[in-house]
Each structure stands twice: as structure tokens, then as C-alpha cells.
Design goal:
The complex is a heterotetramer, with two copies of chain A and two copies of chain B.
Chain A: H1 8-31, E1 32-34, H2 35-44, E2 50-51, E3 55-56, H3 57-67, H4 76-86, H5 90-98, H6 112-144, E4 151-156, H7 161-173, E5 178-181, H8 209-226, E6 231-235, H9 241-250, E7 255-257, H10 260-267, H11 271-288, E8 291-293, H12 299-302, H13 309-325, E9 333-334, E10 336-338, H14 348-362, E11 369-371, H15 381-397, E12 402-404, H16 417-433, H17 437-440, E13 441-443, H18 448-470, H19 472-477, E14 497-499, H20 507-515
Helix pairs in contact in A: 1-11, 1-13, 1-18, 2-3, 2-9, 3-5, 4-6, 6-11, 6-20, 7-8, 9-11, 10-11, 13-18, 14-15, 14-18, 15-16
Chain B: E1 5-6, E2 17-24, H1 30-42, E3 45-57, E4 60-69, E5 73-74, H2 90-101, E6 105-111, H3 119-125, E7 142-146, H4 153-162, E8 167-171, H5 179-193, E9 201-205, H6 211-216, E10 221-223, H7 229-243
Parallel strand pairs in B: 6-7, 6-8, 8-9, 9-10
Antiparallel strand pairs in B: 1-5, 2-4, 3-4
Helix pairs in contact in B: 2-7
The chains are: A alpha/beta, B alpha/beta.
Bound molecules: cobalamin (2 copies) and pyridoxal-5'-phosphate (2 copies).
Chain lengths: 520, 251, 520, 251
């Protein structure tokens, strides 16, 4: 159902331009890796735990590698060497190294074949982790089916994982399909993953593997009770992007906020660093069938939704291309956008529909992530509830995929249990009331909606053409997204980027790339 | 705090968070906002945030506030009266009437006073019933007379006598200025004046009715929002069985 | 813009059937009058005030006429006779009669020409009252123009006219175009109009001429301050229908709830009585340019909106015909309907749009009065606010005329000032956000909306055909409206109906009928 | 009640009506509803109506209640501190700087701590401004440096010294667990430790900031929601003129 008559050729053109732009990034990625990627490998090999009460073992091991100036060959073979030497498994060996009980070994002084055998074994185990998670999720689908879209996505953000659990249960009881545990503020800037269960956070709860586990377990229980599978989300973006993806796979998370553009723009994370981490994290997501969510919605919290709608669309196209480069299939690409037009603009709802419908048509098979109004939410909770009601209607009318629940207290505090309840109640009301509306109406040719969508697409094409010439990184440096400028060499985490040496090896990435998309 | 003591719950146990909205008859501005904060403090709230203040005209301001309520209450000490209703369905109820009472039951219902709201009493009495639960008129073992709205106490009583009713079902929806309390009380006084109080089960219902309130008003039972006809029927039957010896009204 | 392709011939048929049904009622009206009509004439002749602290002079005078068995000739000539006898004006004479200081006279014993001269003079003054009101309203329109539709209609219902005034001012400040002072419960059953300003009421404030004046004055003041004319509404339906219309004309009210069907069904008022009173009250409205509002919306509070939508449409058609019989032009016929479908019904919003759009197309020039959801309002005020948001959208999308503000506390109490404020804020939000939506969309041919509208119209035609055969009164007796049955001879106020005698005279009605529609 | 005493207003003067919503960590039912009513009573409300009670799960219930608040407060005694801001527009402000200060003003702004919210500080500083009111960067007589978000106190101070700023503009949006208070205080302590407190005007801003709070925290002024850049500029200019003799910072 093509509700808005878009130019098919133009769509083909923007998709191919976006692929070119992503290709340039992909080039860069081939020659670099990051400390985060290496820590990710360690985690997938089974390395976990902390030393000195707070430094995660993967961090310490990689730090030592850096200290010893051997990071350019990656961690895997060095680890394999110690494993061969000690005859012990990766986890034990890594701990011993981290505690500086044993030194790292130079793989060059070992038999290459043995090294490679261990390496392959490590890679197999690593990929097993991902396959295992994929299969468990598939089993849940086989058993319970998929919920009808839009999926109701609800956040918890108490800072305390046990309170989050209480809140999540209540949200599921009230109909949530998906629970997202919002991360404590600025965790994206931490260059390590905190360890264990946490009960203190600011504006959210730390993303730790143990917290993932606690919540997944709680959701498994309510899933059983409710007879439907409840999905779990957390945030990967930031300095630990691929590591968090690994933890998420271990704990069977279903979705990850996963977008380097967010980190670059809103967290001032270095772009090279995060593009690389993102690529690896997305490979993991692809193999473990974790749906990624991208963060284009955030652009509109800073820049104006009418003026800059095209930057959202352009970014979605690039993000889609980058996701496909990392083997993600359409069903796993939750591109973000948002209902953020100033409500004072006459006919704002029509423009919102135009934007949402444009996204729907450009990415017909993606589970689009639709963000509720946040910027124009008022501290008047009744007014804000009306905003969400209209948002709910836009979502059901344009058939979005992942529906982030709008909260009436958005402009006041992170949600209380009752705020969540009211939000879900409002969603159910509108979704039921107007489920068929999208099918029922046609837009006036040459009307406000159709023209707006076409215009945004035209502007998108212009921006993409420009970006193809100057490159994405230069585009970001010029402030093409969210009016925020970030330079290629600025931002956090650049020191964790390194050029792959001649002996660099990453058997997990190699394997996932080689085996391609797997669907079983 | 001992476990049975409770406080409102925002996002952390016993954080006491409550949401408040109200109007003060003053012009909006920093002084109004401060007054709102101080006022909320007088309602036993700490850490009050006056999140929103909007002018509704030049002499009235609307506020939304959040605060942490200080009191705690011992939940183990709270008991609520409810009309004890055995859960029975349509068939069980008719069965029970046949078997245990061995005669048909007769009830009369009305909305009294100048109240014109009939949807509530109709929900209980009409064939169609409410929420997939048949109304009393549909029960083969119950004779149900619905007098509709705007019925005077005298008329209701007269009809009840004429048809020899077992139970009076009295509905009240308009509660402004406590109109419902007034009407309920008047009817009860009439019944007592006529020395007919014990002759009938007298049941009150309506959106603001609780069993406790009904008892206070001298009624046998009270039913509030969401009541299903079968609950009322079950209550009547079981109570009549209990009172069997005392009552010998017949249709 | 015919959004729903309706059968033009069918529309012609139902309109003509409705006219036939109304015609039958009109026949009855020609041969009867009521005590209320006679009191109305007295009021228009300038009679006012109370005797014995509470009985209005018009009531006492008419009661005496009834006592003396002379009511069948009407009050006018009897009054004229006393005026001639005493040489005093109508007001003074009526007071003296009411206080039983002087007796009524038999006009037959006076010179018919003199009687008729006085009668004509009375009629001229009476009609002057109406003309004067019409002109003042026209002057307001000339000065300030008409607000854009839908007009925002807000109620006050404190019971105290002075508090109502405070509330009304605030509502106007928040954007209300129209203020309706809701009447104290069951005033429709009073066979007289209370006197003076009142400060006690239940669920509303008594309709008295003084209360009208107090509120009109307050609204005139805010109109000046806001630079726009704010309209005032009250309720006529009930046992004093035409009398209240007269008071409304004196005090320049702009609209009246005016529907005998409401009185018959919901107040058990005798149908003959109220059809007659309604006719006269509508003649007054026509001349004084008071927009009438009909009460079909109420049907759906008792019977189901999906099952009985056609009864609303049928009643609207009959009401329109009855209104046109009483010289009301399209712009004065505010036919009522409501957004009352059970929100649990999947796609309820689509059916609501179908109903609202059908009304819009059947009565393209009438300022349709659209009632918000009331029956399915919840005591959860947030949920209820969402209901009103969708209602607001339905209204702006189908371009309704008079938009009754939905209130989030509908299921709890008569509105507080803040409830009103939030309601108006919500309306402004949605109206601005989606003002152009109706123009922008087309409905799928053969879709849910189009088919629903057609079906309702078919069912309407069936009912009208049936009513044409059996008559409206018999139809009401059979429970065709709101599932409520009322017999021709039942209900309140029948004893106030009398057959016009051979000497009956009503010079005001005669004159208004004779002069027809006046537009200046 | 004397006229200057005020209470919440529902639909009748001094009726005290307030709306309340809250959650109790108990299962819904008559007992929960009774607990809610009793609880609301402890908040100095009379005639409490628990209008709505809905289960959010099997151990949490959501309530909407109305009640009549009993306290009254003397409005004549309430005074709110506000940053005294003369109303001046863009042109007047620049004029005043030229005429009365006779030098350009220099300000530096930042969101401190880990707070990443820049929209507020940008609204005040960026060219574009806020709500049709130009931002400080646009003022020809003002040199405005916006350091963005996630700025440490040390960095802010260093920049302020480097550019010889007249005023520091500090923004904080995240208030959960009082993060903003913590950050504001830390910055103030740093200024004092470095004995630089008196060298600058230090101005706080953000959605939960009031002038009173800012003063309490040791700041010169505070600006909350809806602040316009011109208000901030006017405040800075007039205060600098007043302090002219005391301050001799230059850009
Ligand atoms: C429908 C309705 C009307 C219809 C009534 C039609 C009819 N045939 O009944 C009409 C349009 C005529 C109407 C008129 C008025 N109404 Co009205 N009306 C409503 C409305 C929208 C719904 C009520 C309803 O039908 N609820 C559905 C039924 C099923 O629920 P229920 O009554 O609670 O019944 C259940 C239980 O309480 C219980 N129950 C009820 N009775 C009994 C009896 C027994 C014995 C038992 C066991 C159980 C039982 O069982 C039922 C099923 O579970 C409410 C607002 C709302 N949404 O609640 C306003 C409302 C009740 N009305 C109100 C008012 C003020 C009026 C008017 C006075 C307004 C006016 N000034 O003109 C008029 C006059 C009516 C009068 N004199 O009584 C106010 C009352 C305010 C207050 N708290 O005092 C309300 C709350 C609206 C408001 N916010 O202002 N109304
Ligand atoms: C936009 C936004 C974001 C954007 C920020 C983009 C950016 N470039 O700034 C993004 C998406 C990045 C974001 C992220 C987060 N956000 Co945020 N965000 C918002 C949002 C939607 C709007 C804030 C805003 O821009 N307001 C508009 C500006 C103009 O208003 P203002 O800041 O009040 O500024 C005015 C005045 O206060 C004053 N002012 C402000 N600063 C200053 C300074 C001076 C000197 C002066 C004089 C005046 C002044 O003047 C301004 C103009 O009038 C709010 C919700 C809301 N609607 O309020 C949540 C909100 C602020 N965010 C919140 C949270 C929790 C977060 C996160 C921590 C969530 C998470 N765990 O990931 C993250 C992390 C951010 C971090 N570490 O700080 C919470 C804060 C809760 C609380 N009270 O503590 C809110 C309230 C949402 C919620 N309900 O949970 N957010
Ligand atoms: C894509 C993406 N990643 C991450 C985050 C959260 O990041 P942080 O942990 O930095 O607050 C967001 C917030 O909206 C996001 O959209
Ligand atoms: C047409 C009409 N008239 C009158 C009324 C009010 O009548 P009463 O004064 O009897 O409550 C209503 C209420 O909705 C109405 O719709």
C-alpha cells in the first residue's frame, strides 16, 4: 500500500548513495580496531569478572596489551598463546593475566598451527554464544508468536535494578511488549562495563551483565505467566558498544540501542572509535538476532523537526546501509524517528503523519522505532497526555514497528509506576480505537501530507549527494546532523583506536562475516 | 518501617510520591508558585516540586505538583466491609431459589428523588443486563419490577407493598451537594415511620455507593460501580435464605 | 466536499418523509395551546415578577384564567380587556390581577376593535423584544465577526450564578466561544420559572431571567476585554420551554437547548404539551435568532451508539423538519449528536467518524452540536482526557459546528475550574494540530467508514418510513428512541394542554408566522 | 476567613478541592480503596472521594482521589525572591552597555557535570535564541562563549580566566537524586577554594532552578523554565553597572 506516491527511482538513488557513504566508513573499519573490540572478544571467549574490586578483567588484559605495545595484533592470539602455555581455559588465563600472576605471551614464539587451532576453538565458542541466544529467541517466537505491531516499548529508569524489576513487571501486566532498562546517565562515556547488580544510578540503571540477567529472568517469569514473550532492551551506544552487545547476547537481550551517531553527536565520542565498535556490535547483533535501534529521533530534540526532518531520513538511510554491511537483515533494523514537531505549528499532525509515513515507505520491512514527543512535552501532565494520544494515533495510522511509550511526566521526572500504567492504557485505547485507520484513508494527491513527504525526500537526496562527496565524517564535522559539529580527531575514546598490525587477527569477526546471514 | 506499614509508591518503595493538582485563586507568578509549594507542604508533603503553574485567568492559577507524602499507615489494621456475596452464576442462583427457598423472589427497583439516571438500575434489572451478565428480569425465579427514575419514596413503597416485594433496589447517581445521602435517608425514614423497615431487604446502589456507606445509612447492603446483576441476585438469595424464617413475604 | 458518496435521492426521500412526520405534529399544534404558551405571551407583553414570594405573575394570571375556565380563549384578549378597563399597561394590570386586586374581564363585553387594537399593540411590543435581541446579536457579529467553527462550548454548573460567573470568565480567558449555564437538575419538571438570582442548585444553576442577565452582562464585559463576542446558552426544554425562550430573548441569549424529544424521553413530559411549547419557543428563537440545540446525543447515553445510531439520524431529520416548520433557518438549527461508541469496539473511531461525517453531509449548513463522550468516561481522569482528545480530533476532522467541550472528570463531578481549563487547552491543541486533516484525507470506497455511514442512512430511512405510517407519537410510545417508551397521554404537564376555543387568539404567533423569516 | 487567606478553589470559593493521584503497593479491592481514603485523609484532606482505583499489577493499585484540603494560608505573607530584572530589549541592552559600561561584556556558559543537556544553555546563548528573542552570541556588545555540555568545573573556570569573563552561565537539567544541587555546589566550592568567587557573576539556570534556590546555593542569580536571553542579558548588564566599581574584569 503506497499511500504516498514516491518516486521509485529516487528511492533507488538515495539507497545506493547511502550505501556508498557507508562503504567509505567500512573501508576505514577494515584497517582499524579498538580496545573495545578486543575486550569484546575476551568476553565472548568467556572472560568475565573484575580485579581490584572494579576493573573488569577484559579491560585489564587489554590495558596490559596496550602497555606492552602489542595491541596492534589483537588480543586473541596473545591469549591463545597463554592458553597453550598454561593449558587452562580463556577465563582462568585472563584472570591470571589481569592479576598479573602470569605475563602475556608473544604468539610468534608458538606454533602457528596450534595458535590457530585454539583461536578457531575460541571463535567457535564465541559464535556459539551468539547462536545459542539466537535459538533461544527463535524458540520463544515459535512458542508464542510475535506480537502485533506496533510493539509497546516501555522504559524503566529507577537506577535500582530491583525496583526496575518491580516496575517492569507492572508494565508487562499493563501490556508492555518490550521493556527497556534506561542506562544511568553518561554510562556511554565509561570505557568499561560496570560489574554486578547495581542499585544506584542517575536517570537510569547501569548496564551490567548481571543486571541484564536479573531483568531477563524476571521477564521470563512474567512471560510464562502472561503467555507471551516479553522482549528486553538495553543501550549499547557509547565507548563499550560491542562489549555490551556481547553481554546482551549472553543474556538473551532482544534489542539494543545501537547507534554510533548518537555517541558522536550527543556524547562527543570519537567517530572513528565508535564506527568501528558499532560495526562489530552489529555483527554480533546480526548473529544473535538482536534488533538494533538507531537514534535519529534524538536529532530532533536538538534541532527543529520541520527544518531538519531530512537529516533524520538521510541518517536512517546511512544507518540502514551500515547495518546491512554488518549483515543485519531488514527485520533487525529498528531505525529511529520521532514525533517532535512543535505543536504550535498549524497542522503539525499532518506533517508528523507525512514524516512517519515516509519512513514507513522507505523502509517497508524494518521495525521502525517511533519516539514519542519529548521536547514539547509540558510539565502540565494532562496536556502532555494529549500529546501522547496524538502520537499514538500517528503510530497506529502509519503502522510503526516499535512504539516507544510516551509518558505524561516526560518534562518532570523519570517515570513513576503510575505514569507507565497511564501511558500503556492510553496506547491500548488509541490502538484499539483506530487500528484500521491507516487502511481506511487515502491522502489527497498534492496535499500537505504528500507534498511534505516528497519535499523531505528531495532534501534528503541533496544531503546524501553532498555527503557522498565529502564523506560522512566531514559531514558530521560540518554539523549536518542535529546542528552539532564533531571533528574526526576530537571526542572521547580516540586513544582506544589502533591500526591493525600485519599479525592482527579477529577470528570471531572473520567467521561471522564469512558465514553471512544465518536464519535458524 | 515494618512491612505492613505502607506509603505511596513512585519508583522506589516508600518514596511516598504523590501527584497533586489544584487551583489557587491568585494571579500566576513566582509568588503564586511559592504559595503553591508552601500549601502542598501543609498537606504533609515534603520535597514538593511545583512542576507546572498556568494562568487560567488573571486571578486563578492551575498547579501540578509532586511531593513525598510523610504519613504511613498500617495496612494490617485496615478492614473494609463488603456485602458478603457468594460467587454464583445465573443457573446456580435460580437453582438455589428453587431448592432452598422453594418460591419465586420478587424485587422492585427505582431511582428515587429527582434523579433521572436510569442506566445504573437498568443495568441491574433489564433483561439485557450488564457486561455480559443477565439482568434480574431474565431470571426465571425472580419477578423484577423496574419503576424507572424520578420515583418518590411513597410510590416506591406503595408498589413494594402491592407486589409484596422481598427487596427494594434503590439507585442514586446525582451526588452533588450530597443529594444522594439526602434521598437515601428520606426513604429510610419513611420505611421506619411506616414500620416497614424489616419487611424488605433494602439495597442501595450507584456510582458513589459502598457497602459501608449503605450500612451507615441503615440499608442492608450497598453496591458501587461495576456491580453485576448476578452479584446482587446472589446477595438477595443468600440473605433471604438466611432470613427465611423471619420473612414470609410472597409474590 | 462529499467525503462519503451518499445517495442524493435517498437524502431527498428521508428529508421529505421527515417533513411529513413533522407535518402530522404541526396539525395537532394548530388545534391546541398550553398554559406555558399563554405565560410566554404575558412575559413578552412585559409581565414579570412574583407574587406571594414565589409564584411568578404569569403563572398566577394563567392559573386564574384556568380557574375561571376561560383559558381556551387564551390570555391575550382577557388581558387587553382589563388594560382597556383600567387604562394601565400590561405589567401593572397583570400584577393587580395576580394579587387578585382586580378581576379578569371577558373581552366579549368590550368593543372588538379596541380589543384588537390593544392586542396588536401588545404583539408589536412582544415582537419588538425579539427583534431587538436579534439586532443586538447582529451588531455583535458585525463588530466582531463569527468565530471559526467548531465553536468551543463550555459549561458551568456550580449551582451559584456568581460562582458560575467566575468560572465562565476563566473559561473565556482559556478560549471558550460559548458559555452554557447548565440548569439545576429537574428544572424541566417545574411548571414555572424561578425568579431572581439564585445561589443554590443541584448539578447546575436555575435558569432564571435574572441569572441570564447576570451572565450576559459578565460575558459582555469579557467580550469587550477579549475583543470577541462570547455566546451564552441555557436550557429551554421542559415544562417552560417557550417561556424560557422569551426570557432568553429578553436577555440576548444566543442559543437554547430546545428539544421536546429530550423532555419526553428523559423527563417524562407529556408529548403533546411539549410539542406545542416547542413550536412556540422555536418561533421565538427564529425571530430573535437564537440557535437551537437538539438533544439526540442523549439517546446514546441510554441506548447503544452502534445499535441505535440510526435513531439519532432519524430524530435529527424530524427535528430539522420541525424547526423549519417554526421558521428556523439552517444556520439556527444546532442538531445534536454524540461521540458515544464503546471504546472497546475495535475501530470505534472509524465508526465515530462515519457517524459525524454522515451528520455533516446530511445537514451541510447546520451548526451541528457535537457532544463529547460521557457514558464511557472513566473515573480515571487521564484515560478520560485521552477520550476527549480523540473526540476533539473527530470534531475537527468532520468540521462540526458547536463543539461541546469534553471534561476529564465527567464521570466524577460537575467540572471544576481546572477541569474546564484542561479541556479547552486540549481542544486548542488538537484543533491546531489537525485543522486541515478533514480536507487532506479521503475515505476508502467500500471501507468501514463509508459502509457504516450508508448503513446508518438505510436504517434511518426504514425507521422514518415506519414513523410516517404510525406517527411520531406512536413511535415514541413503541420505544423507537433511546429504547424509552412514553405514551401520548402519559407524562407530566398534560393538564396544561387545552384545545383552542373559537375565540382563541395569539397575536404574537400569528404575526411571527405571517411575517416569516426575517434576516436583518 | 479573612480575604488574604487562601485555599484551593474547585468551583466554590474556599471549597479546598484538590486532585490527587498516587499508587499504593497493595492489591486492588475494597480494602485498598479504604486504605487510599484513609491515607488521603492523613494529608489534611476532608471528604475524600477515591474516584478511581485500578490494578497496575497484583500488588500495586493506582488511585485518583479528590478531597477538600483543610489548611489555609495567608497570601499576604508570601513573598518570592526574583532576580530583579529590568525589562529591556536587545537594542536597549546593547545601548546601555555602550553608554554605561563603556566596554564589551564577556560571558562563558556551560552545562557542567555529566549532564549532556545543551538545549537550555543554547537557548540563552546561541545566535538563534529562544522564542523570538536573540541569544547572547548575537549581541554586538557581548562576547559569548558556549562551552557546551559535560564540562568540568575546572575547565569552565580555566576558560573563564582565560577570556577574562564577567559572568559564568551554568546550566543543569538532570535533577534525579539531586544531581544538579551536587554539581552546582561543587562548582561554587571550587570557586571559593580558588578565591575567585567575587571575580565573576555566577548565574545558574535550568528547568528546576528558581532565583531563591540559586541564592541559597551561593549563586548571584537563578533562572528557570521559559527564561529569555534578553532577561539574562539585562540582569547581567544592570548588575555589572551596579558593581562597576567592584569589578574590573575586561575582555
Ligand atoms: C448517562 C448520563 C446522563 C443521562 C441519563 C440517561 C439515563 N437514562 O439514565 C442524562 C443525559 C439524561 C443525564 C442527565 C443529567 N446528568 Co448525568 N450523567 C450520565 C453519565 C454520562 C453516565 C451515567 C451512567 O449511565 N453510568 C453507567 C452506569 C451503568 O453506571 P452506574 O450508574 O454507576 O451503575 C452501576 C453501579 O453504580 C451499580 N448501581 C447503580 N444503581 C444501582 C442500584 C442498585 C440497587 C444496585 C444494586 C446497583 C446499582 O450498578 C451499575 C452497574 O454496575 C454520567 C457521567 C459518567 N460517565 O458517569 C453523568 C452524571 C452522572 N450526570 C450528572 C449530572 C449533574 C446530570 C444532570 C443533573 C445535569 C443537568 N444539570 O442537566 C442531568 C439531570 C439528570 C438528573 N436529574 O438526574 C453528573 C452528576 C454529578 C454528581 N456527582 O453529582 C455526572 C457525573 C456528569 C458530570 N460530571 O457532571 N445524565
Ligand atoms: C532534549 C532532551 C534530551 C536530549 C538532549 C539533547 C541536547 N543537545 O541537549 C538527549 C536525548 C540527548 C537527552 C538525554 C538524556 N536525558 Co534528557 N531530556 C530532554 C528533554 C526532552 C528536553 C529538554 C530540553 O531541551 N528542554 C528545552 C529547554 C529550552 O528548556 P530548559 O532546559 O529548561 O532551558 C530553559 C530554562 O531552564 C533556562 N535555562 C536552562 N539552562 C540555563 C542556564 C542559564 C545560565 C540560564 C540563565 C538559564 C537556563 O533557559 C532555557 C530557556 O528558557 C527533557 C524532557 C522535557 N521535555 O523537559 C528530557 C530530560 C531532561 N532528560 C532526562 C534524562 C534522565 C536524560 C538521560 C539521563 C536519560 C538516559 N538515562 O539516557 C539522558 C542523558 C543525558 C545526560 N547525561 O544529561 C530527564 C531528567 C530527569 C530529571 N528530572 O532528572 C528528562 C526530564 C526526561 C525524563 N522525564 O526522564 N535528553
Ligand atoms: C541510540 C542511542 N543510544 C544510546 C542512548 C543513551 O545513551 P546514554 O547512555 O549516553 O545516555 C540513546 C538515548 O536516547 C540513544 O538514542
Ligand atoms: C435538549 C436538552 N434539553 C434539556 C437538557 C437538560 O434538561 P434538565 O434541565 O431536565 O436536566 C438537556 C440535557 O442534556 C438536553 O440535551
Amino acid at each position: 500500500m503506497e499511500k504516498i506516491p514516491l518516486n521509485k527511482e529516487q528511492i533507488g538513488r538515495v539507497k545506493s548513495t547511502a550505501a556508498d557513504i557507508a562503504g567509505q566508513i567500512r573501508e576505514m573499519i577494515r584497517t582499524y580496531s579498538t580496545v573495545c573490540v578486543e575486550r569484546t572478544l575476551l568476553r565472548l571467549y568467556g572472560v568475565d569478572g573484575v580485579v581490584d574490586d572494579e576493573t573488569p578483567v577484559p579491560n585489564r588484559v587489554v590495558d596490559i596489551l596496550v602497555e606492552e605495545n602489542r595491541i596492534d595484533s589483537g588480543v586473541t592470539r596473545a591469549l591463545a598463546a597463554v592458553m597453550i602455555k598454561t593449558g587452562r581455559d580463556a577465563k582462568t588465563v585472563a584472570e591470571l593475566i589481569a592479576r598479573r600472576r602470569i605475563p602475556l605471551e608473544d604468539p610468534a614464539s608458538y606454533d602457528m598451527e596450534r595458535i590457530m587451532a585454539v583461536e578457531q576453538e575460541l571463535a567457535r565458542k564465541a559464535v556459539d554464544v551468539l547462536d545459542h541466544s539466537r535459538k533461544r529467541k527463535q524458540a520463544a517466537i515459535d512458542r508464542w508468536g510475535l506480537p502485533v505491531q506496533p510493539w509497546k516499548y516501555m522504559i524503566t529508569a529507577t537506577g535500582n535494578i530491583y525496583e526496575d524489576r518491580t516496575q517492569a513487571r507492572s508494565a508487562v501486566y499493563s501490556g508492555a511488549d518490550i521493556i527497556a532498562v534506561i542506562r544511568s546517565t553518561a554510562q556511554s562515556l565509561l570505557d568499561y562495563i560496570p560489574y554486578g547488580p547495581t542499585t544506584e544510578g542517575f536517570g537510569g540503571t547501569y548496564a551490567t551483565q548481571e543486571n541484564f540477567r536479573i531483568m531477563r529472568k524476571a521477564l521470563n517469569e512474567v512471560s510464562e505467566r502472561q503467555g507471551r514473550y516479553v522482549r528486553l532492551v538495553n543501550y549499547a551506544s557509547g565507548l563499550c558498544m560491542s562489549e555490551i552487545a556481547a553481554c546482551a547476547a549472553f543474556e538473551d537481550l532482544d534489542m539494543l540501542l545501537n547507534d554510533s551517531m548518537y555517541g558522536i553527536l550527543f556524547r562527543d565520542i570519537n567517530m572513528m572509535r565508535t564506527f568501528i565498535d558499532q560495526y562489530v556490535s552489529r555483527l554480533i547483533c546480526s548473529r544473535a538476532k538482536i534488533i538494533i535501534n538507531t537514534g535519529e529521533d534524538n536529532y530532533l530534540t536538538t534541532s527543529d523537526a520541520m527544518e531538519n526532518a531530512y537529516s533524520v531520513t538521510a541518517s536512517q538511510l546511512i544507518n540502514e546501509a551500515m547495518a546491512k554491511d554488518a549483515l543485519l537483515t531488514d527485520d533487525l533494523i529498528g531505525l529511529g524517528h520521532a514525533f517532535e514537531i512543535n505543536p504550535k505549528i498549524e497542522n503539525a499532525f499532518l506533517y508528523e503523519i507525512a514524516h512517519a509515513q515516509l519512513a514507513r515507505q522507505l523502509f517497508p520491512n524494518a521495525p521502525l522505532k517511533y519516539m514519542p514527543p519529548t521536547k514539547y512535552k509540558s510539565t502540565n501532565i494532562f496536556y502532555s497526555h494529549a500529546l501522547d494520544t496524538m502520537f499514538n494515533l500517528a503510530s497506529i495510522t502509519t503502522n510503526q514497528g516499535i512504539h516507544l511509550a510516551g509518558i505524561l511526566t516526560e518534562a518532570i521526572h523519570t517515570p513513576l509506576m503510575q505514569d507507565r500504567y497511564l501511558s500503556l492504557q492510553g496506547i491500548d485505547y488509541v490502538f484499539g480505537l483506530a487500528r484500521g485507520l491507516g487502511d481506511e484513508i487515502a491522502f489527497k494527491p498534492d496535499g500537505l501530507i504528500v507534498n511534505r513527504a516528497k519535499r523531505v525526500l528531495d532534501e534528503t537526496e541533496q544531503l546524501l549527494d553532498e555527503l557522498k562527496d565529502i564523506g560522512l565524517m566531514e559531514g558530521v564535522a560540518l554539523g549536518k546532523f542535529a546542528n552539532i559539529k564533531r571533528s574526526r580527531d576530537g571526542g572521547k575514546g580516540l586513544d582506544g583506536v589502533f591500526k591493525k598490525g600485519p599479525n592482527y587477527s579477529n577470528p570471531v569477526m572473520d567467521r561471522i562475516e564469512r558465514e553471512g546471514v544465518i536464519n535458524a | 518501617m515494618p512491612e505492613q506499614w505502607i506509603k505511596p509508591y513512585g519508583d522506589t518503595l516508600n518514596d511516598g510520591l504523590v501527584q497533586l493538582s489544584f487551583t489557587l485563586p491568585v494571579e500566576n507568578g513566582p509568588r503564586a508558585i511559592k504559595a503553591a509549594r508552601i500549601y502542598a507542604g501543609k498537606l504533609n508533603l515534603k520535597n514538593v516540586t511545583v512542576a507546572c503553574a498556568e494562568a487560567m485567568d488573571d486571578a486563578h492559577t492551575f498547579f501540578v505538583a509532586y511531593g513525598r507524602a510523610e504519613p504511613a499507615i498500617d495496612y494490617s489494621e485496615i478492614r473494609a466491609e463488603e456485602a458478603t456475596v457468594e460467587h454464583m452464576d445465573f443457573y446456580e442462583i435460580n437453582d438455589r431459589i428453587r431448592k432452598d427457598l422453594n418460591r419465586r423472589i420478587c424485587v422492585v427497583g427505582a431511582t428515587i428523588g429527582s434523579d433521572a439516571h436510569t442506566v445504573g438500575i437498568d443495568a441491574i434489572m433489564n433483561m439485557k443486563g450488564y457486561n455480559q451478565d443477565y439482568g434480574l428480569e431474565r431470571y426465571p425465579e425472580i419477578d423484577a419490577y423496574n419503576m424507572g427514575a424520578q420515583v418518590t419514596g411513597e410510590d416506591l413503597l406503595k408498589t413494594a407493598m402491592d407486589i409484596n416485594a422481598d427487596a427494594l433496589l434503590v439507585s442514586q447517581t446525582v451526588t452533588q451537594k450530597d443529594a444522594h445521602l439526602h434521598n437515601f435517608t428520606e426513604l429510610m425514614e419513611l420505611l421506619e415511620a411506616e414500620q416497614l423497615r424489616d419487611r424488605f431487604l433494602v439495597i442501595a446502589g450507584g456510582p458513589r455507593i459502598t457497602h459501608e456507606l449503605a450500612i451507615e445509612l441503615g440499608y442492608d447492603a450497598g453496591f458501587g460501580p461495576g456491580t453485576l446483576p448476578s452479584q446482587v441476585a446472589a446477595y438477595i438469595v443468600t440473605t433471604l435464605i438466611k432470613r427465611r424464617i423471619m420473612l414470609n413475604a410472597k409474590c
